[in-house]
């Protein structure tokens, strides 16, 4: 995916407002071996690109003043109630340097899992994306989570997912978050009635207060 940008010569809040009124978005490109560079990008093409899932988790080709760089989207600031992009940040990437980025999870085969077919379970997606670390060349568009073997009473953790070669989850030591849960309708037990001693204790306690 490609982004076309031009170097911003004027900076500051006033310059940014004028840029937005003219139909452009102020932004910055930083990282790598180059210096941070303020840029401007035409708003409407950028707005539509941001609605594409892959734009948020792919290495992008950015053309700045005719020169090409490879970047990752790092931050977007939106207007609080208008469909308007206020500011955007990109980070340069190098082929030999690992990157850390969030990519979407793609759940497959849940409709044929024993939890659904045999038990009528409802699958709950606790997480819809995951942070990974890899070289730019190994960056996947998504991580597939196969639920074909999921059974009632079970859940899927991050450690259960097979990651592509060269890709690893960016989690802390000992972290193993739940990705998927199964709920069986009507399986929740009713709260048990109080035991006889407990039930008898309540009137006794009330009597003692008189």
Describe this structure in words.
This protein has 210 residues and is of the alpha+beta class. The protein has 4 helices and 13 strands. A 6-stranded mixed β-barrel has the order 1-3-2-6-5-4. A 4-stranded mixed β-sheet has the order 10-7-9-12, with no helix packed on it. It starts with a strand and ends with a helix. About 5% of the residues have low confidence.
SS element count, helices: 4
How far apart lie the N and C ends? 77 Å
Oligomer, anyone? single chain
Question: What is the gyration radius calculated from CA atoms?
Answer: 26 Å
Q: Which band does the percent of strand residues land in? A: 35-45%
- Taking all residues together, what is the mean pLDDT? 88
User: What about the largest sheet?
Assistant: 6 strands, mixed, barrel
Structure in a nutshell:
The chain has helices at 13-21, 43-50, 114-117, 196-208; strands at 2-7, 24-30, 37-42, 60-64, 67-78, 85-92, 99-108, 122-125, 129-134, 143-146, 156-157, 168-169, 178-183. The chain is α+β, with helices and mostly antiparallel strands and 210 residues long.
Question: What is the secondary structure topology, with strand pairs?
Answer:
Layout: E1 2-7, H1 13-21, E2 24-30, E3 37-42, H2 43-50, E4 60-64, E5 67-78, E6 85-92, E7 99-108, H3 114-117, E8 122-125, E9 129-134, E10 143-146, E11 156-157, E12 168-169, E13 178-183, H4 196-208
Parallel strand pairs: 1-4, 2-6, 7-10
Antiparallel strand pairs: 1-3, 2-3, 4-5, 5-6, 7-9, 8-13, 9-12, 11-13
């Amino acid at each position: 995916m490609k982004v076309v940008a031009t170097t911003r010569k004027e900076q500051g809040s006033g310059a940014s407002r004028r840029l937005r009124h003219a139909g452009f978005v102020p932004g910055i490109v930083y990282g790598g071996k180059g210096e941070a560079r303020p840029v401007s990008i035409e708003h409407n093409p950028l707005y539509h690109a941001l609605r594409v899932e892959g734009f948020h988790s792919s290495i992008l080709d950015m053309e700045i003043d005719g020169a090409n760089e490879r970047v990752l989207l790092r931050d977007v600031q939106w207007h609080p109630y208008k469909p308007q992009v206020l500011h955007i940040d990109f980070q340069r990437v190098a082929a030999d340097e690992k990157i850390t980025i969030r990519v979407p999870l793609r759940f497959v085969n849940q409709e044929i899992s024993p939890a659904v077919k045999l038990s009528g379970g409802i699958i709950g997606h606790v997480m819809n994306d995951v942070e990974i670390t890899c070289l730019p060349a190994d960056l996947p568009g998504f991580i597939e989570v196969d639920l074909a073997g999921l059974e009632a009473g079970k859940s899927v953790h991050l450690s259960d997912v097979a990651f592509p070669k060269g890709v690893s989850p960016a989690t802390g030591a000992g972290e193993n978050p739940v990705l998927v849960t199964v709920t069986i309708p009507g399986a929740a037990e009713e709260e048990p009635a109080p035991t006889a001693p407990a039930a008898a204790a309540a009137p006794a306690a009330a009597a003692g207060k008189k």
